[in-house]
Amino acid sequence: MNTSSNKPKLILALGLVYVLWGSTYLGVKIVTEVLPPFFLSVVRFIFAGSIMLAIGFAVEKENPTRKQWKNAGLIGILLIGMGNSSVALSLAHMPSGLVALFIAALPAWFIGLDWLFFSKERPKALTLWGLVLGFVGLFFIFDPFYIIHPYNAARTYPLWPILVLTAGSIAWAFGSLLSPRLDTPKQLTSSGIQMLSGVICSIILSACLESNQWEALNAMTTRTWLAVGYLVIFGSLVGYTAFSWLVNNAPTQVSATYAYVNPVVALILGWIFLGETLSTHAFIGSVIVIAGVVLMTLKKK
């Protein structure tokens, strides 16, 4: 992949993913105050996917083969149906900044899965130290066994969403690594198919695990609809397209760097609009996590 010839596109795509995806944590948090998280994914991506697919057909004028439909659908299930839905579910139960910080460890899954299933390239020592540092920081933040702060009763959120986030992160990383290795349609058409495939997965999860979805839809306010509109336009149509371009045109470590910028944006917005704050030990842990992610990605220019 020749990133030098695509440098302006690379910078633009990274900037969009850095800022827009960091702000989507706030948007999802606002909407899940009213809508169940899996049903939110249905609403969000049925709009975004339909618009994206229509634009793709109009602009790219491609008639995908059955194999291309199948491949793009698989990527959509991994990224949208599993990865994105796990974030929405976690945001319904945890502060947005902490969810974003957990997602900051995503490069660890990229590196590990790439080593095991794709490149077979063993991570360098610096990368391994970054992995260790990242997970130490996460343990410091969440302190599941109250080892660091044995008398800390300030945690007001459950820890089970961490397991959901872990599964979703693995699905997201695997789908991102798989995407450039499969025969898929052109960029916009493929993104539309992926989103709509994720909708099918989210519909099944919502039908099995949630209730009163339509009653919740009737309870949406102007604030909620504005947040949905932001997620559709900026989080999905613009942000997801930029990320899809990155995973197909940039080295893995480069495309994964958004993971240590998004938490900063999410933390600032959560503090401004939702009144979320970080405890001292969580702040220290977040610095450790981001330092670890930086180490993981240092070997790439």
UniProtKB/TrEMBL annotation:
Gene3D superfamilies noted in UniProt: 1.10.3730.20
Keyword tags: Membrane, Transmembrane, Transmembrane helix
Compartments (UniProt record): Membrane
Main localisation: membrane
Keyword Hydrolase attributed: no
One annotated Gene Ontology cellular component of this protein: membrane
Similarity field: Belongs to the EamA transporter family.
Name of this chain's protein: EamA family transporter
Organism of this sequence: Chitinophaga barathri
